[in-house]
Each structure stands twice: as C-alpha cells, then as structure tokens.
Amino acid sequence: MEEIETPLKQPVRSRNVSWADPQASAELGKQLSGLAYLQALHNGEIPPPPIAELMNMRLAEVEEGRVVFTLEPAEFHYNPIGSVHGGVAATLLDSCMGCAIQSVLPLGTGYTTIELKVNYLRALSSQTGLVYAEGKIIHRGGRIATAEGRITDASGKLYAHGTTTCILLR
C-alpha cells in the first residue's frame, strides 16, 4: 500500500443555511398558475425553496416562457479537483429550464423533469463572478414540454448549455 503525504491541517470554513417549510410553499403553488407562482417567488411573497438557499441561487427574472436564475460560484460549490462541481451547473440548468416550462402552465398543472442534457464548455470557479442561467420554453404539448438553457457570465461568455424534457402532470 502506497503512503500518501497529507497536507497540514487547515482552518475549517463554515456556512449557515436556513430555509422555510417547502411543503407550505408547495401548497401555495397549487393555488396559482405557474407564472403567478414564479412571480410570487420572485417578489418574495413566497419563500425560496431549500435548494435555492443551499446553493445561494436567486430567481432574477420571470416572464411567460423565460426564467433567469443567478448564482455567484463560491468555494463551497467546489469539488475535489478544485473547481465548481458540475452538479451546480446541472442544477442551475434544471431549475431555469423547468421553471421556464412552469411559467406557461395553467392552474392545476404540475411538471417534473424526465430527461436532462447538459453540455459543459468551461469550468466555473470562485473567480468567474455572477453567472446567469436563462431557460426558455421550446415546446409545450398536452403531456410533454421541452426547454433549453444557457449559463453565461456578465460578459456573455457561455459556460454550459442544455435541454430538458418534462412530463406535465394534471
């Protein structure tokens, strides 16, 4: 067995995360159209879901068929190889694309992701600065909806893009 030299002990960093009851927010969502629910989230009338608090992502823009989330990549997003974990980009894309679909759904219609495709183009790091995850609806049918998404920085540089397919639940 090979011995591996370990680095000196480093000071431990910490972060506190708080969130509201997600079931209460979900129940409110059942009383609104998809767009009205997202607008209420955006306006702070409904608290953000725990995943948004955990990852420190914010709902920045909402309109019918289009949603933008923002996130500033930070050290707490890092993986063992020293860059932001790919799951952060996947979560941003899943969120913006899913919410773009949600924004066109009437009262009483839900959705869930059944397929997610992500293309990673360049690594995110704590030096990247604020990124924007924009999701746009491509198609809404009776049972299936699709959307596309892009993650860019403030200068418009593309970091990742993807597509999703969601099933509509009535």
TrEMBL record:
UniProt domain Thioesterase: residue ranges: 82-158
Claim: Transmembrane is one of the keywords in the record: no
GO MF assignments: fatty acyl-CoA hydrolase activity
Keyword entries, A-Z: Hydrolase
SUPFAM superfamilies in the cross-refs: Thioesterase/thiol ester dehydrase-isomerase
Stored Pfam families: 4HBT
Family: Belongs to the thioesterase PaaI family.
Protein name per its UniProtKB record: Thioesterase superfamily protein
